[in-house]
Amino acid sequence: MLKYADKIRQEARDLLQSGEVDVFVGFRKGTIPMMNEPILIRDARDAEKLHWDSNCGINLANYLTKRKERMGVVAVGCHSRNIVTHIVENQISRDQVVVVGVPCEGMLDRRRIHELAGRREILEVLEEESGIVIRSHDFEQRHNKQDVLQENCAICIHRNPVIWDRLVGEAVKEQDGIDRYEDIRAVEAMAPDARWSFFQQLIEPCIRCYACRNACPLCYCPTCFVDESRPQWVGKSIDPVDTLTFHFLRAYHCAGRCTDCGACERACPVGIKVRRFTKKLEKDILELYGWEAGLSLDERPPLDRYRPDDPEEFIK
Amino acid sequence: MSENEWQPKIVAFLCNWCSYGGADLAGIGRLQYPPYIRVIRVPCSGRMSPKFILGAFRRGADGVWVSGCHPGDCHYIEGNFYARRKFALLKNLLEHMGIEPGRLHFSWISSAESTKFARVATEVCEAVRALGPAKKFIKDLPEVA
Hints:
- The complex is a heterodimer of chains A (316) and B (145).
- Chain A contains 10 helices and 8 strands.
- With 316 residues, chain A is α/β, with parallel strands linked by helices.
- Chain A has 3 domains: 1-104 and 158-174, no CATH class; 110-148, no CATH class; 179-310, no CATH class.
- In chain A, strands 2-1-3-4-8 form a 5-stranded mixed beta sheet. Chain A has a 3-stranded antiparallel beta sheet with strand order 5-6-7, with no helix packed on it.
- In chain A, helix 8 packs across helix 10 (275-289).
- The longest helix of chain A has 15 residues, at 275-289.
- Chain A starts with a helix and ends in a 27-residue tail after the last helix.
- With 145 residues, chain B is α/β, with parallel strands linked by helices.
- Chain B has helices at residues 19-28, 50-58, 79-96, 114-131, and strands at 10-15, 37-42, 63-68, 104-108.
- Chain B has a 4-stranded parallel beta sheet, with helices on both faces.
- In chain B, helix 1 links the parallel strand 1 (10-15) and strand 2.
- The termini of chain B are far apart.
- The mean pLDDT of chain B is 92.
């Protein structure tokens, strides 16, 4: 993935110099390992600051809404699907964005890497052809990249951008034979009470910081339901019922729109696997309505249309 | 039934044009059904938000029942078609999170189907009664004077 960095800088410089875009949204290297941060540049000279490696899991589609100017943006497979979703939902127009597509081989799970390093301080994480090298004061570890991928990347089936204007490298091979819903089926197989305790335990550490919501490109409502006070649909306390209501509604609002980019899980400061909620909806929508989010500019999303013969065996 | 016996509290969201009319007709016809439902009239089943249903459970409802016009008969032409997709996902996700399958019910009842209204009301009440008082998703609100 490192090889893309130069090409991205070149494209950004080109786009800004030619005036094709007013602002370019990309990543710069973070100040601590495995934490790249989004950067918006307006001057072609700043293109040098752009960076790319396997720690670019933040979803840049989140920075495109509510802007008037023309934008260039770096996008891997899932992020490009979020751009498609934005266009379909009329948040941005197609001719407003120049998508610099990046074929992706997955982002690194920094929590997993910290675990493997025994929670000791990590000075550097290097990516080599053969794998990942974790380097510290007094030790060095090597791992296969496949073993330290984010969970959503390991089961990704859309690695290449869906829409792009410029592509920075050859398309990568899509993974096949992937079982995306193994973990969801495991929960489905439990009894109701066991599922209840499963989710209670899952959200138990939640501090209601809303980082999952803020990291999500789908959450662009002017007033979020958690901030509504008349009526107040969800309490602001960390009462387990309030917390569960929050996670339920957050996921439900993403139904048929979520691309499983994993930005929410990555952003969670306490490591809650919040994708357990959104993925159940993703699975249901695929099974009931045969829909995967963000693959087409021409189709309306599943909750914005219907078929007369939609399944309804649960209705009396 | 003794007076001290627990009785379920069921919130019924009925669409103004069909199911509410069906309930009305059931009353006019003096049809008998258990008295545990509290009716909230909504303009259309398409008006239903998951917040209403979660809100009812959160405040201690033992069951929730949502009823609208039959598909194709919606006063607003297609409101219940959209609602049907939302309901399917909502019910699946709620039950995935551990709410018992018998707590949340949906039905299509036209304003002429008073007997169906009485029958479904009975079914819903029996299903919820069989589960006993709701213990999940209830928030204990502090008493304020």
